[in-house]
Amino acid sequence: MKLAGKIALVTGGSRGIGRATALAFAAEGADIAFCHLNDDAKADETAGEIRALGRRTLHRSVDVADIAAGRGFAEQAARELGPIDILFNNAGINIRKPFEGYTEEEFDRIFAVHVKGMFFMAQAIYPAMVARGQGCIINVASQRGLKGAVNSAPYSSAKAAIMGFTRALAWEATPKGVRVNAIAPGPVVTDLTATMTPADRQAFIDALPVGRFGRPEEIAATALLLAGPDGGFYVGATLSPNGGDVMY
Ligand code: NAD
């Protein structure tokens, strides 16, 4: 197994891409701590599936935008499961509307969950990784941070910031044994995209060379590549499984 004996912390692990990644990591031997926001029923289901794979797990509702709460969860995970080897920094939200309609509060919330939340969750876990001379941090960005999109200006901006953060931290972390990368998925079938209008969804599909949305498991496969023994030469990279939406 590729992650035998490893401990992973997944933010936003109750459903969607986080859940698929937690299960993919668990299937490869990792114990999993995950947080979510007010999604207890789905979190319990995910935890049950992780246990059925024979792994240890713990989960809690934690708003990653609350830095002290995120830090507390990281400490609890390390205390109960052991030192964190892999951070899958994934929790996210979107608020869709035309640029001119965003309020300061909405802008701040999107940046607080994505950029601030990811930054400080990484900061909570990083020193212990450095002390052990090993670790892997994967930040979930989006193809929208690469190419932009209508009705998602703060989200696209935050996702671009995450890629910048990933590269900056990779410069500092790599010599200390900690690998930092990002994943920028294209559109994936999850609750996050379920709120798109049918017209928006169809327009997206029509523009995708692959002609369909991705499955969460297809993003989890990229996460497993980065986290596992075959990912050792990826540093500060943004891998983008996106159905051909962005080719680079
Ligand atoms: P989802 O809505 O299915 O799941 C989001 C998860 O994050 C849930 O577990 C939720 O409880 C958790 N969460 C939300 N806000 C949180 C907060 N403040 N604190 C802690 N947990 C919180 O969404 P998804 O599609 O699986 O998205 C996961 C990540 O992938 C996000 O960062 C998203 O921006 C990114 N992404 C998604 C797509 C897509 O098409 N679905 C594409 C590109 C990037």
Key attributes of the depicted protein:
248 residues; alpha/beta; Rossmann fold; 7-stranded parallel beta sheet; 9 helices; 7 strands; binds nicotinamide-adenine-dinucleotide; NAD(P)-bd_dom_sf; SDR
Characterise this structure.
With 248 residues, this protein is α/β, with parallel strands linked by helices. It has one domain (7-239): NAD(P)-binding Rossmann-like Domain (Rossmann fold). Helices cover 48% and strands 14% of the residues. The chain contains nine helices and seven strands. It has a seven-stranded parallel beta sheet, sandwiched between helices. α1 crosses α9 (216-227) and α4 (104-132) packs parallel to α6. It is globular and about 45 Å long. The two termini are 32 Å apart. The structure holds nicotinamide-adenine-dinucleotide. Nicotinamide-adenine-dinucleotide binds at residues 11-18, 35-37, 39, 62-65, 90-93, 113, 140, 142, 185, 187-188, 190-193.
Summarize the entry for a quick read.
This protein has about 250 residues and is an alpha/beta fold. It contains nine helices and seven strands.
CATH architecture: 3-Layer(aba) Sandwich
Number of helices: 9
The geometry reads as globular
Number of structural units classed as domains: 1
Full CATH superfamily name: NAD(P)-binding Rossmann-like Domain
The description of the largest β-sheet is: 7 strands, parallel
Beta fraction of the residues?
5-15%
Which small molecules are bound? Answer: nicotinamide-adenine-dinucleotide
The percent range for helix content is: 40-55%
Averaged pLDDT: 97
Q: In angstroms, what is the radius of gyration?
A: 17 Å
Structural class: alpha/beta
Remind me, CATH topology? Rossmann fold
> N-to-C terminal Cα separation, in Å?
32 Å
Organism: Reyranella soli
Protein name: Ketoreductase domain-containing protein
Family: Belongs to the short-chain dehydrogenases/reductases (SDR) family.
InterPro entries: KR_dom, NAD(P)-bd_dom_sf, Sc_DH/Rdtase_CS, SDR, SDR_fam
